[in-house]
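debug: dumping io for the single-chain case to check the tokenizer round-trip. Nothing else runs in this session.
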Amino acid sequence: MSGTISATMVNHVAMDMAASANAVWQVILDDYVEATKFREYGAVEPLDDPAAVFGGYRMRFEQSGVVDERVVRITERDEAARRLSAAADYLSVPGGMRVYATYHAQEIDGGTRYTIDCHTQLSVDMPAGDARAGVAATLAEMTAGADRHLLAYLAAIKARVETDA
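debug: decoded output
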């Protein structure tokens, strides 16, 4: 059997930060509602979509020869809980990719725990041989790579908010 199948990759990462929950929440809003973390790389335009009740945007940028084009819809914005959720359709990924992510600034003793939970739906090539084991190995490798990327992002945020605190 060859071809591609639809698969889901799940990532859960968190990092404790010696900063107020309000400061971390503001970073979440800046990065994902205002899209400041993307604006330095390319174009971000507001999404004119009545289904994007909490807002959204279309973005396109190129970095190291790789084009990244997405449509992002904010699906939850809970100010009291300091929690934001979004769905992003990655238009430039062959076969398509959709990411559902939740960003949460949780107050803890001595600071804030910034958590990110993601579910990513994507197409995965069917390997030869034991397809189930091959897909599992591919997803494990992809999940580990995404975890490293998300933890590096959280470490950069930690350094920034702790310096500002």
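debug: round-trip ok. The mean pLDDT is 92.
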